[in-house]
Amino acid sequence: MAIERTLSIIKPDAVAKNVIGEIYSRFEKAGLKIVAAKMKHLSKAEAEGFYAEHSARGFFGDLVAFMTSGPVIIQVLEGENAVATHRDLMGATDPKKAEAGTIRADFASSIDENAVHGSDSTTSAAREIAYFFSTIELAPRTR
Ligand code: RTP
Ligand code: MG
Q1: For the chain, what is the domain count?
Q2: Which domain of life does the UniProt lineage start with (predicted)?
Q3: Which ipTM score applies to this complex?
């Protein structure tokens, strides 16, 4: 298996629920390392650009309004098969369909307010990581 990086966001609902530490703990227990992280209150333009692939969808306005409703925590996770490992931890988009024990089953209240985001492929991950982090913020560690 390959070592990958993926982009993760703890969305405004989960930040407001005070479960940042609980979610970070799940990443770490699954072998995903937090290699960069920041708290940010997204502007409308930043949220629209991030979710540009969904701009023609009926839920786009609601999605942007939700993602700008409060601060988010954005992180780059690194580990074996990180994209899929992270998506498995998150669970299905709709928390009603998410497997028990997943982040969305435990913390999301609806398909619109679903606690976390995760890149859906290594290609998306590369775009999404570059969207939020500069080269210097992603510099290799010495320890
Ligand atoms: P995300 O990008 O946030 O990680 O979520 P995802 O891959 O599981 O789902 P995606 O299809 O990329 O949709 C992005 C976000 O849009 C909202 N959504 N609402 N009402 C709806 O039918 C609907 N479908 C999607 C969700 O909040 C989803 O996370
Ligand atoms: Mg998605």
Answers
A1: 1
A2: Bacteria
A3: 0.94
